[in-house]
Amino acid sequence: MKRLRLGVLVSGRGTNLQAILDAIARGELDAEVALVICNHKEAYAITRAERAGVPVGVLIQKEYASRQEHQRAIADSLEKAKVDLVVCAGWDRIFTHEFVERFLGRIINIHPALLPSFAGGLHAVRSALEYGVKVTGCTVHFITHDLDSGPIILQEAVPVLPDDTEETLAERIRVEEHRLLVEAIRLYGSQHLQIEGRKVRIG
Protein backbone atom coordinates (compact mmCIF):
# COMPACT_ATOMS: atom_id res chain seq x y z
CA MET A 1 0.00 0.00 0.00
CA LYS A 2 1.45 3.35 -1.00
CA ARG A 3 2.01 6.07 1.53
CA LEU A 4 -0.90 8.48 1.83
CA ARG A 5 -0.17 11.92 0.38
CA LEU A 6 -1.85 14.73 2.29
CA GLY A 7 -2.75 18.23 1.25
CA VAL A 8 -3.32 20.26 4.42
CA LEU A 9 -5.26 23.54 4.36
CA VAL A 10 -4.58 25.96 7.21
CA SER A 11 -5.50 29.51 8.15
CA GLY A 12 -4.01 30.17 11.58
CA ARG A 13 -1.56 28.83 14.16
CA GLY A 14 -1.41 25.37 12.62
CA THR A 15 -1.59 23.26 15.78
CA ASN A 16 -3.53 20.53 13.98
CA LEU A 17 -0.95 20.60 11.19
CA GLN A 18 1.75 20.18 13.83
CA ALA A 19 -0.10 17.21 15.32
CA ILE A 20 -0.12 15.55 11.89
CA LEU A 21 3.57 16.28 11.31
CA ASP A 22 4.47 14.97 14.79
CA ALA A 23 2.47 11.77 14.29
CA ILE A 24 4.25 11.14 11.00
CA ALA A 25 7.64 11.82 12.61
CA ARG A 26 6.86 9.33 15.42
CA GLY A 27 5.88 6.68 12.89
CA GLU A 28 2.28 6.62 14.08
CA LEU A 29 0.88 7.77 10.75
CA ASP A 30 1.89 6.21 7.44
CA ALA A 31 1.53 9.39 5.43
CA GLU A 32 3.38 12.42 4.15
CA VAL A 33 2.33 16.03 3.92
CA ALA A 34 2.81 16.67 0.22
CA LEU A 35 1.61 20.28 0.36
CA VAL A 36 0.39 22.84 2.86
CA ILE A 37 -1.78 25.67 1.60
CA CYS A 38 -2.41 28.74 3.73
CA ASN A 39 -4.66 31.71 2.95
CA HIS A 40 -3.11 34.22 5.38
CA LYS A 41 0.42 35.54 4.93
CA GLU A 42 1.06 36.02 8.65
CA ALA A 43 -0.23 32.64 9.83
CA TYR A 44 2.19 30.76 12.07
CA ALA A 45 1.20 27.54 10.31
CA ILE A 46 3.49 28.62 7.47
CA THR A 47 6.46 28.59 9.84
CA ARG A 48 5.54 25.13 11.09
CA ALA A 49 5.43 23.77 7.55
CA GLU A 50 8.72 25.40 6.56
CA ARG A 51 10.47 24.03 9.65
CA ALA A 52 9.28 20.56 8.68
CA GLY A 53 10.58 20.99 5.15
CA VAL A 54 7.08 20.72 3.68
CA PRO A 55 6.18 22.62 0.48
CA VAL A 56 3.93 25.59 1.27
CA GLY A 57 1.65 27.57 -1.00
CA VAL A 58 0.37 30.91 0.29
CA LEU A 59 -2.72 31.75 -1.74
CA ILE A 60 -4.55 34.90 -0.66
CA GLN A 61 -8.12 35.33 -1.85
CA LYS A 62 -7.87 39.10 -2.45
CA GLU A 63 -5.08 38.47 -4.96
CA TYR A 64 -7.57 36.69 -7.23
CA ALA A 65 -10.40 38.14 -9.28
CA SER A 66 -13.01 36.01 -7.50
CA ARG A 67 -13.57 33.42 -4.81
CA GLN A 68 -14.03 30.85 -7.56
CA GLU A 69 -10.65 31.65 -9.12
CA HIS A 70 -8.95 31.53 -5.74
CA GLN A 71 -10.33 28.11 -4.93
CA ARG A 72 -9.63 26.87 -8.44
CA ALA A 73 -5.98 27.78 -7.90
CA ILE A 74 -5.96 25.91 -4.59
CA ALA A 75 -7.52 22.84 -6.19
CA ASP A 76 -5.06 22.95 -9.08
CA SER A 77 -2.14 23.10 -6.62
CA LEU A 78 -3.46 20.12 -4.66
CA GLU A 79 -3.93 18.06 -7.80
CA LYS A 80 -0.48 19.02 -9.08
CA ALA A 81 0.94 17.73 -5.77
CA LYS A 82 -0.96 14.46 -6.35
CA VAL A 83 -2.58 14.46 -2.92
CA ASP A 84 -4.76 11.52 -1.94
CA LEU A 85 -6.58 13.28 0.90
CA VAL A 86 -7.30 16.96 1.57
CA VAL A 87 -7.29 17.81 5.27
CA CYS A 88 -8.84 21.05 6.51
CA ALA A 89 -6.89 21.66 9.70
CA GLY A 90 -8.21 25.01 10.85
CA TRP A 91 -9.39 26.40 7.50
CA ASP A 92 -11.59 29.49 7.65
CA ARG A 93 -13.26 29.56 4.24
CA ILE A 94 -16.36 27.89 2.84
CA PHE A 95 -15.72 25.93 -0.33
CA THR A 96 -17.37 26.47 -3.67
CA HIS A 97 -19.45 23.72 -5.25
CA GLU A 98 -16.74 23.26 -7.88
CA PHE A 99 -14.00 22.75 -5.29
CA VAL A 100 -15.96 20.20 -3.27
CA GLU A 101 -16.90 18.32 -6.42
CA ARG A 102 -13.23 17.91 -7.37
CA PHE A 103 -12.36 16.27 -4.02
CA LEU A 104 -15.66 14.73 -2.96
CA GLY A 105 -15.07 11.67 -0.79
CA ARG A 106 -11.45 12.61 -0.09
CA ILE A 107 -11.67 15.87 1.82
CA ILE A 108 -12.13 16.00 5.60
CA ASN A 109 -12.52 18.72 8.22
CA ILE A 110 -12.07 19.09 11.97
CA HIS A 111 -14.87 21.08 13.65
CA PRO A 112 -14.74 22.23 17.32
CA ALA A 113 -18.20 20.98 18.30
CA LEU A 114 -20.25 17.80 18.35
CA LEU A 115 -21.99 18.10 14.99
CA PRO A 116 -24.76 18.67 14.16
CA SER A 117 -24.69 21.00 17.17
CA PHE A 118 -23.11 24.43 16.56
CA ALA A 119 -22.52 23.88 12.88
CA GLY A 120 -21.44 26.73 10.62
CA GLY A 121 -19.39 29.76 11.43
CA LEU A 122 -16.06 30.18 13.19
CA HIS A 123 -17.30 30.53 16.78
CA ALA A 124 -18.59 27.11 17.75
CA VAL A 125 -16.84 27.17 21.14
CA ARG A 126 -18.28 30.58 22.01
CA SER A 127 -21.73 29.43 20.91
CA ALA A 128 -21.51 26.34 23.13
CA LEU A 129 -20.68 28.49 26.15
CA GLU A 130 -23.43 30.99 25.39
CA TYR A 131 -25.98 28.21 25.01
CA GLY A 132 -24.96 26.73 28.36
CA VAL A 133 -24.30 23.15 27.26
CA LYS A 134 -22.57 20.86 29.74
CA VAL A 135 -20.77 18.85 27.08
CA THR A 136 -19.29 19.85 23.74
CA GLY A 137 -16.33 18.44 21.81
CA CYS A 138 -15.03 18.00 18.29
CA THR A 139 -15.93 16.20 15.09
CA VAL A 140 -13.98 14.96 12.08
CA HIS A 141 -16.23 14.69 9.05
CA PHE A 142 -16.16 14.47 5.29
CA ILE A 143 -16.85 17.75 3.54
CA THR A 144 -19.83 17.78 1.21
CA HIS A 145 -21.80 20.52 -0.52
CA ASP A 146 -23.78 21.23 2.67
CA LEU A 147 -21.82 23.16 5.31
CA ASP A 148 -20.72 21.00 8.28
CA SER A 149 -23.20 18.31 7.26
CA GLY A 150 -20.98 15.66 5.70
CA PRO A 151 -20.74 12.09 7.01
CA ILE A 152 -19.18 11.98 10.48
CA ILE A 153 -16.00 9.94 10.88
CA LEU A 154 -15.14 10.43 14.57
CA GLN A 155 -16.29 12.51 17.52
CA GLU A 156 -14.97 13.15 21.01
CA ALA A 157 -16.87 14.72 23.90
CA VAL A 158 -15.32 17.39 26.13
CA PRO A 159 -17.04 18.51 29.36
CA VAL A 160 -17.74 22.21 29.85
CA LEU A 161 -16.46 23.28 33.28
CA PRO A 162 -18.26 25.90 35.39
CA ASP A 163 -15.36 28.38 35.16
CA ASP A 164 -14.53 27.81 31.48
CA THR A 165 -13.80 30.72 29.22
CA GLU A 166 -13.81 30.50 25.45
CA GLU A 167 -10.01 30.20 25.56
CA THR A 168 -9.80 27.46 28.21
CA LEU A 169 -12.54 25.38 26.63
CA ALA A 170 -11.06 25.79 23.16
CA GLU A 171 -7.67 24.63 24.43
CA ARG A 172 -9.11 21.43 25.92
CA ILE A 173 -11.06 20.74 22.75
CA ARG A 174 -7.91 21.34 20.71
CA VAL A 175 -6.11 18.52 22.55
CA GLU A 176 -8.82 16.11 21.40
CA GLU A 177 -8.81 17.59 17.88
CA HIS A 178 -5.14 16.71 17.47
CA ARG A 179 -5.71 13.09 18.42
CA LEU A 180 -8.95 12.68 16.49
CA LEU A 181 -7.69 14.19 13.25
CA VAL A 182 -4.63 11.95 13.19
CA GLU A 183 -6.80 8.89 13.86
CA ALA A 184 -9.23 9.83 11.07
CA ILE A 185 -6.34 10.18 8.61
CA ARG A 186 -4.98 6.81 9.73
CA LEU A 187 -8.36 5.17 9.18
CA TYR A 188 -8.70 6.74 5.75
CA GLY A 189 -5.23 5.58 4.76
CA SER A 190 -5.91 2.04 5.93
CA GLN A 191 -9.06 2.02 3.79
CA HIS A 192 -11.20 1.30 6.83
CA LEU A 193 -13.71 4.07 6.09
CA GLN A 194 -16.73 3.46 3.91
CA ILE A 195 -19.33 6.14 3.21
CA GLU A 196 -22.86 4.76 3.25
CA GLY A 197 -25.27 7.58 2.48
CA ARG A 198 -24.88 10.14 5.27
CA LYS A 199 -22.99 7.72 7.50
CA VAL A 200 -19.43 6.42 7.68
CA ARG A 201 -18.81 2.76 8.50
CA ILE A 202 -15.47 1.99 10.15
CA GLY A 203 -13.96 -1.45 9.76
Describe the fold and architecture:
By secondary structure, this protein is of the alpha/beta class. The mean pLDDT is 96. Helix content is 35%, strand content 25%. Helix 1 (15-25) packs across helix 6 and helix 3 (67-80) packs parallel to helix 4. Helix 2 (44-51) links the parallel strand 2 (31-38) and strand 3. It has 2 domains: 1-103, Rossmann fold (3-Layer(aba) Sandwich); 110-203, Rossmann fold. It has helices spanning 15-25, 44-51, 67-80, 97-103, 124-131, 166-189; strands at residues 4-10, 31-38, 56-58, 85-88, 107-111, 135-142, 152-159, 193-196, 199-202.
Task: Describe the secondary structure blueprint for this structure.
Elements: E1 4-10, H1 15-25, E2 31-38, H2 44-51, E3 56-58, H3 67-80, E4 85-88, H4 97-103, E5 107-111, H5 124-131, E6 135-142, E7 152-159, H6 166-189, E8 193-196, E9 199-202
Parallel strand pairs: 1-2, 1-4, 2-3, 4-5
Antiparallel strand pairs: 5-6, 6-7, 8-9
Give the proportion of residues in helices: 25-40%
Instruction: Sketch the topology as an H/E string, one letter per element.
Output: EHEHEHEHEHEEHEE
Low-confidence stretches: none
Measured by DSSP, the beta-strand proportion falls in 25-35%
Number of helices: 6
CATH architecture of the largest domain: 3-Layer(aba) Sandwich
Query: Measured on Cα atoms, how large is the radius of gyration?
Result: 16 Å
Question: Structural class given helices, strands, pairing?
Answer: alpha/beta
Give me the side-by-side strand order of the main sheet.
3-2-1-4-5-6-7
